[in-house]
C-alpha cells in the first residue's frame, strides 16, 4: 500500500475517488425524487407516465453510471498520479569551469583518509552539487593531461568520468601542473558564451618540473581572462604510496629500491595562484568546495536551460480527459432522451462551445511549433541547412525546448557550418532520456568539435580535437560497436598526433526513415563500401597506434624522471 501511495503527489486526495461517485449518485436520486413529486401534482403517477417520456420522469441507469464514473476519474486525477520519468527543465545561471584533477600515483597516498584522490572526488561532487548552472569540463593529468569531458551541464556524464578517475586514466606517469593549466586554458578558450571562465586545479602540488613553466602558464591564463583556483591535498609530513603488485598490496619504490615518500608541496600551487592573481586553497582548509564557490562568486554568469534530475511524470490527464469525455457524452445523449433525435439545446451548445474554446486556446503555440518543425525538416531534406536552422530556431523561440527539437536545431547548425553556435543546443539535447536522441546529439557534438579541429591549423586545433575525443569516448562507452564513432575517434586521434587527415562519418548514427524525417542528420557521410574499408583499416591500425603511443610514453621519461 505504501508503494502505491508513492505513485501519487497527494495520496490523501484519493479518498475523493470514493466519495465523489457516492455524492453524484445521491444527488441524481434526490433530483429524480423532486421531479417525480412535481409530476405527481399533475395527477397520479400512472396517468402522468403515459403522457410524458419515461426518461423525463426518472434518469436512466446509464446516465448515473456515466456521471459516477466521471466523478471517480476526476477524484483520481485530483490526487496527482505520476509514473514513468521525465527530465525537468529549469532556468539557472552559471559560469564555464574546467576542473583539472591530479590523477598521478601520489594521489593514492593515504595521509588524507581514505586517500588524497578519494577526498578530491568528494570535493568535486560537493562542488558540482552546488554548481548546477555551471558548464563543467574535466581534465585528468599526471605526466600528461587529457580531456575526459568537454564543458557540459550533464551531471551523469561528469559522474561517469569522476567515478572512473584513477592513475590508469593518464598514459604517462609523473605530475605536470604546467601541462594541466595549459590544456585547461585552451579548453576554456574554445568555449563560446557570455559567462566568465574559471580553471580549478586540484593537486598535491608535487610536480617535478620547473616553477618557471608553471608560473608562465598561470600568467597566460590570467592574460586570457581566466580565473585560476588551486586546491591542495595531502600533508607536508607525507607518506608512502600504496600499489598493487602480483595481487598483493605493497608500496611504491624508487629506482634505488627505497620506498617513495610523497609530500604535499604548497609552494608551487601558491606561486601559480599568485602569478595568475587567483586563489590558493591550502590542503588543511576545511570545506574546500564552499571556498571554491566563494572565490568564483564574483564572476559573470550566463542564464542557461538545464535539464534537472529525473522525476515521475504527471499523468493526471489520463484520468481527467476520460472524465471530460464522459460528461460531454452524457450531455449529448441527454439531448436525445425520449427516443427522438432533436437539435442541440442550449446546454449541449454551451458544452460544445466550451470544449471548442479550450481546444482553440491550447493549440496555437503547439501548431506554430509544429509548422516551424515541418518547415525545418523540409528545408533540411532539400539541403537548405541555413533555412532549416532558422526554422528550428523559430520552433525553439515559440517554446519547444524539448531535447529532440534542440537536437534538430543543433544538427542543422552543424550542417550549415555554424559549429560554435551548434554546441549549446547539442549539449542540451544530449541530456535527453531517449537513448537514441542522446546518442545522436553526443555524436554530432563530437562532430562539431572534430570539424573545427580539422579546419584549424597548428596547435590551436588541439583543444577542439581533445573535446571531440572526449565526446566520442562517451559515445563508445554506450555503443562500442558504433563504426562511425570509432572512425571519427581515430581520425581525431591521428590529427591530434599530426599523422593524418580526411573526412569523418556524419550525423550521429542510423535510424529508420521515419526517424530520419524527424531527426535530420548532416550530409557528407561516406559511401557504405568506402566506410567499411576505412573502418576496417582503422580497426587494424588501432592496436598499432595505441602500442606506438605507449612506446612513446616509455621512451619519453616523466617530468623530472620521477613517475609518481
Furnish the topology, listing elements before pairings.
Blueprint: H1 2-5, H2 15-40, H3 45-51, H4 54-57, H5 61-78, E1 82-94, E2 96-102, H6 116-129, E3 135-141, E4 145-152, H7 155-163, H8 177-190, E5 197-203, H9 211-223, E6 226-232, E7 239-240, E8 242-245, E9 248-251, E10 261-262, H10 266-275, E11 279-281, H11 288-295, E12 302-314, H12 317-334, H13 346-362, H14 364-381, H15 385-397, H16 403-415, H17 419-429, H18 435-455, H19 462-478, H20 483-496, H21 513-518, H22 528-555
Helix pairs in contact: 2-5, 5-12, 6-7, 6-11, 8-9, 8-19, 9-10, 12-13, 14-15, 15-16, 16-17, 16-18, 17-18, 18-19, 18-20, 19-20, 20-22
Give an overview of the whole structure:
There is one protein chain. With 564 residues, the protein is an alpha/beta fold. The protein folds into 3 domains: 2-80 and 322-338, no CATH class; 89-300, von Willebrand factor, type A domain (Rossmann fold, 3-Layer(aba) Sandwich), CATH 3.40.50; 369-525, Alpha Horseshoe (Serine Threonine Protein Phosphatase 5, Tetratricopeptide repeat). It is built from 22 helices and 12 strands. It has helices at 2-5, 15-40, 45-51, 54-57, 61-78, 116-129, 155-163, 177-190, 211-223, 266-275, 288-295, 317-334, 346-362, 364-381, 385-397, 403-415, 419-429, 435-455, 462-478, 483-496, 513-518, 528-555; strands at residues 82-94, 96-102, 135-141, 145-152, 197-203, 226-232, 239-240, 242-245, 248-251, 261-262, 279-281, 302-314. Strand 3 and strand 4 form a beta hairpin. Mean pLDDT is 75; it is low at 338-366, 499-518 and 521-557.
Amino acid at each position: 500500500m505504501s508503494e502505491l501511495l508513492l505513485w501519487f503527489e497527494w495520496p490523501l486526495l484519493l479518498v475523493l475517488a470514493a466519495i465523489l461517485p457516492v455524492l453524484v449518485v445521491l444527488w441524481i436520486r434526490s433530483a429524480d425524487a423532486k421531479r417525480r413529486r412535481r409530476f405527481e401534482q399533475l395527477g397520479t403517477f400512472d396517468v402522468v407516465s403515459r403522457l410524458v417520456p419515461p426518461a423525463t420522469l426518472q434518469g436512466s441507469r446509464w446516465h448515473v453510471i456515466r456521471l459516477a464514473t466521471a466523478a471517480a476519474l476526476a477524484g483520481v486525477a485530483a490526487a496527482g498520479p505520476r509514473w514513468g520519468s521525465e527530465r525537468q527543465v529549469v532556468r539557472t545561471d552559471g559560469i564555464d569551469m574546467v576542473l583539472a584533477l591530479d590523477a598521478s600515483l601520489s594521489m593514492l597516498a593515504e595521509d588524507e583518509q581514505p586517500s588524497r584522490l578519494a577526498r578530491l572526488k568528494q570535493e568535486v561532487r560537493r562542488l558540482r552539487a552546488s554548481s548546477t548552472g555551471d558548464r563543467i569540463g574535466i581534465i585528468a593529468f599526471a605526466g600528461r593531461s587529457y580531456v575526459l569531458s568537454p564543458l557540459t551541464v550533464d551531471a551523469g556524464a561528469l559522474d561517469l568520468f569522476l567515478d572512473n578517475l584513477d592513475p590508469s586514466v593518464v598514459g604517462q606517469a609523473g605530475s605536470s601542473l604546467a601541462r594541466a593549466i595549459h590544456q585547461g586554458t585552451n579548453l576554456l578558450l574554445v568555449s563560446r558564451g557570455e559567462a566568465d571562465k574559471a580553471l580549478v586545479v586540484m593537486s598535491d602540488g608535487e610536480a617535478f618540473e620547473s616553477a618557471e613553466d608553471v608560473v608562465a602558464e598561470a600568467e597566460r591564463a590570467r592574460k586570457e581572462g581566466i580565473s585560476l583556483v588551486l586546491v591542495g591535498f595531502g600533508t607536508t609530513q607525507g607518506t608512502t604510496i600504496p600499489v598493487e603488485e602480483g595481487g598483493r598490496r605493497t608500496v611504491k619504490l624508487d629506482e634505488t629500491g627505497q620506498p617513495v615518500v610523497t609530500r604535499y608541496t604548497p609552494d608551487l600551487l601558491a606561486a601559480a595562484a599568485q602569478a595568475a592573481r587567483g586563489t590558493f586553497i591550502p590542503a588543511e582548509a576545511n570545506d574546500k568546495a564552499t571556498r571554491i564557490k566563494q572565490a568564483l562568486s564574483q564572476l559573470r554568469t550566463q542564464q542557461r536551460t538545464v535539464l534537472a534530475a529525473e522525476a515521475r511524470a504527471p499523468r493526471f490527464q489520463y484520468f481527467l480527459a476520460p472524465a471530460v469525455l464522459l460528461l460531454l457524452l452524457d450531455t449529448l445523449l441527454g439531448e436525445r432522451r425520449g427516443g427522438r433525435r432533436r437539435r442541440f439545446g442550449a446546454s449541449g451548445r454551451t458544452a460544445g462551445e466550451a470544449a471548442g474554446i479550450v481546444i482553440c486556446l491550447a493549440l496555437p503555440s503547439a501548431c506554430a511549433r509544429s509548422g516551424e518543425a515541418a518547415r525545418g525538416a523540409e528545408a533540411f531534406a532539400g539541403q537548405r541547412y541555413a533555412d532549416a536552422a532558422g526554422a528550428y530556431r523559430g520552433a525553439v523561440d515559440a517554446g519547444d525546448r524539448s531535447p529532440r527539437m534542440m537536437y534538430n536545431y543543433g544538427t542543422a547548425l552543424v550542417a550549415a557550418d555554424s559549429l560554435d553556435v551548434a554546441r549549446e543546443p547539442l549539449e542540451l539535447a544530449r541530456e535527453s532520456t531517449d537513448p537514441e536522441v542522446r546518442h545522436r546529439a553526443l555524436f554530432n557534438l563530437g562532430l562539431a568539435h572534430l570539424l573545427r579541429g580539422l579546419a584549424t591549423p597548428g596547435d590551436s586545433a588541439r583543444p577542439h580535437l581533445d573535446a571531440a575525443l572526449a565526446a566520442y569516448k562517451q559515445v563508445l562507452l554506450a555503443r562500442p560497436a558504433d563504426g562511425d564513432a570509432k572512425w571519427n575517434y581515430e581520425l581525431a586521434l591521428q590529427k591530434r598526433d599530426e599523422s593524418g587527415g580526411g573526412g569523418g562519418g556524419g550525423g550521429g548514427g542510423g535510424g529508420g526513415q521515419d526517424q530520419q524525417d524527424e531527426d535530420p542528420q548532416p550530409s557528407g557521410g561516406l559511401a557504405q563500401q568506402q566506410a567499411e574499408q576505412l573502418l576496417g583499416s582503422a580497426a587494424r591500425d588501432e592496436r598499432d597506434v595505441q602500442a606506438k603511443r605507449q612506446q612513446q610514453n616509455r621512451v619519453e621519461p616523466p617530468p623530472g624522471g620521477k613517475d609518481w
